[in-house]
Amino acid sequence: MNEKIFKTMAFEQIKQQLRQYLVSAAGSAELAQLTPSDDLATVQQAIDETRDGADILRLEGGIPLPKLADITPHIKRLSIEGTLSGTELAQISRVLKTVQRVVSFFDDLQQKPVELRRLYTVVADLIHLPEVSKRLSVSLEDDGRLTDEASPDLKRIRRKITTLEGTIREQMAGYTRGKNAKYLSDTLVTIRDDRYVLPVKAEYKQRFGGIVHDQSASGQTLYIEPEGVVVKNNQLREAQIEERQEERRILLELSELLRPYQTEILENATVLGHLDFINAKAHYAHAIKATEPILSADNQIALRQARHPLIAADKVVANDIELGTTYKAIIVTGPNTGGKTVTLKTVGLAQLMAQSGLFIAANEHSQVGLFDEIFADIGDEQSIEQNLSTFSSHMENIVNILKDATDHSLILVDELSAGTDPQEGAALAMAILDDIGAIGSEVIATTHYPELKAYGYNRPETINAAWNLTRKRCNRLIDY
Questions:
Q1: How far apart are CA 305 and CA 115, in angstroms?
Q2: pLDDT at 281 over 90
Q3: What is the chain's Cα-based Rg?
Q4: Residue 76, CB half-sphere, CA atoms under 13 Å: how many?
Q5: What is the per-residue pLDDT across 228-260, written as a single tens digit (0 to 9) for each?
Q6: Of 5, 77, 247, 448, which is most buried by a Cβ count within 10 Å?
Q7: What are the backbone dihedrals phi and psi of residue 118, each rounded to the nearest 5 degrees, phi first?
Q8: How far is CA 428 from the centre of its chain?
Q9: What Å distances lie between residue 258 and 68, 254, 475, CA to CA?
Q10: Distance between terminal CA atoms of the chain?
Q11: Helix, strand, or coil here: 109?
């Protein structure tokens, strides 16, 4: 479908509103690729998934999915024999744990039972790796730090480090109390170069012996490792090096554990992202009070109290709009600022949303078509650079639409042939509508030309419509 219609109908704004409900990188990637389709099976499948998501949201509060990072770069590193960091491993671990949680969640739904159209089949594509998931869970904290249980050697080394640190702190604390405290700039033990030191006044640097590791900016304080703790600090340093070596060994071991399952892990992330996307569609539908559209392969539109989803609920005006049954063209008249343009955009946006598998902002049992293209000429597209007047710009757009439209297209035109001599404009508008009729496209056009009202009466499959302004908050598209 042409890119221009997405901008004209603010489809990207709809996608932006959907984005706030996503929790996974894979779900965000799927949203970025979201475009309308005119294939009945494809669209119906997407609608069915949104229906399932809406039912789960209503019954269970949604599919239980945590925030999931993009693990694609991690899998690429595995594929080139790389070793993953603790953070990267933890992110993969979260994907595998989520698989187990989601599978259990849907198993419970089946036991209740809850009828779903599509999602049991989708979840069946998840590949549970219980032993791998367990090993990662035991070895890693959520932030990627290795646990003491990652290996017996790591646990032993860390216990040794804890013991040495306790001994050193106790010995250093002895220097900060009693008669030695007067030789210190501060009675706090600190660390320099990963070794415990004392902040000693410069004039007493010989008092404790040992090694000077640093000095203050003024030079009045020296950070000294007392001679009495050098041996213990050396032992601590050796244990810390041993700990890092063991941690590197474990990270390599865990990376090797995952390497055979690269395809399965990526597929899991993709399925979870798809479920996240379905969840987001359901949440968005609930937020805008949207309903499931009925798809018409014959491109028959029947919107019931359709609303523009980007207009505030307390300001939007709902309308009933029908097209494609007894008539294929609607000519809409009415005063300026009466809502004619919003109506065109409501129809166009409802179609884009429905053909993308989204629910629409309309009452239940609303019907939409499956158009191969949706074209719109709405707004002032005057181009200074191309030296086009408003009228010329519109005419160029109309010419391009007529060239590309088919008998399965929808055309929306605001103020058809406006911006020129009224008599000539009306004649041109009727000629354009004749061409659209010859192509077989469905069309809604707004106009101020009174001549088009007579045209609407006399032309087959065409109907006039106007705005009923007798009640400010209840404007309706009605037969004129």
A1: 29
A2: yes
A3: 35
A4: 4
A5: 888 888 999 999 999 999 999 999 999 999 999
A6: 5
A7: -135, -30
A8: 45
A9: 18, 6, 61
A10: 33
A11: helix
Residue 455's pLDDT is what? 79
Amino acid identity, position 123: V
pLDDT score of 74: 97
Find, among 376, 378, 358, the residue nearest to 366 by Cα: 358
Question: How do 319-323 and 329-333 pair as beta strands?
Answer: unpaired
* In the predicted structure, residue 479 carries a pLDDT above the cut 50: no
Determine which helix (DSSP H) or strand (DSSP E) holds 44, and give its type and residue range. helix 40-60
Which tokens belong to 176?
């900060």
Strand partners, 24: 68
Alpha carbon of residue 186 to chain centroid = 52
Using alpha carbons, select from 162, 141, 163, 138 the residue that is nearest to residue 152.
Answer: 138
Contact 366, 303 (CB under 8 A): yes
pLDDT on residue 314: 85
Q: Is 384 exposed, middle or buried, given 0-12, 13-18 or 19+ CB atoms closer than 10 A?
A: exposed
pLDDT in tens, 92-127: 999 999 999 999 999 999 999 999 999 999 999 999
Alpha-carbon distances of 347 from 306, 320, 323, rounded to whole Å: 8, 10, 10
Asked whether 441 and 407 are in contact (CB, 8 A), the reply is yes
What DSSP character marks residue 238? Answer: H
β-pair partners for 239: none
CB burial of residue 176 (10 Å; 0-12, 13-18, 19+): middle
Q: Are 312 and 57 in contact (CB under 8 A)?
A: no
Is the predicted pLDDT of residue 381 greater than 70, yes or no? no
Q: What is the mean pLDDT of residues 157-168?
A: 93
pTM of the model as a whole:
0.86
**What are the structure tokens assigned to 476, written together?**
């309706």
Cβ proximity of 416 and 427 under 8 Å:
no
Percent of the chain surpassing pLDDT 90: 61
DSSP annotation string for 348-360? HHHHHHHTTT--B
C-alpha angle with apex 177: 171 to 179, nearest 5 degrees? 115
Rounded to whole angstroms, how far apart are CA atoms 235 and 333? 89
- Which pLDDT score, from 0 to 100, does residue 392 have? 75
Pairing state of beta strands 462-467 and 329-333?
Answer: parallel
What is the rounded CA–CA span in Å between residue 184 and residue 168? 18
The answer to whether residues 347 and 301 touch, using CB atoms and an 8 Å cutoff, is yes
Please tell me the predicted confidence (pLDDT) of residue 456.
Answer: 73
Give the rounded distance of the alpha carbon of 156 from its chain centre.
Answer: 44
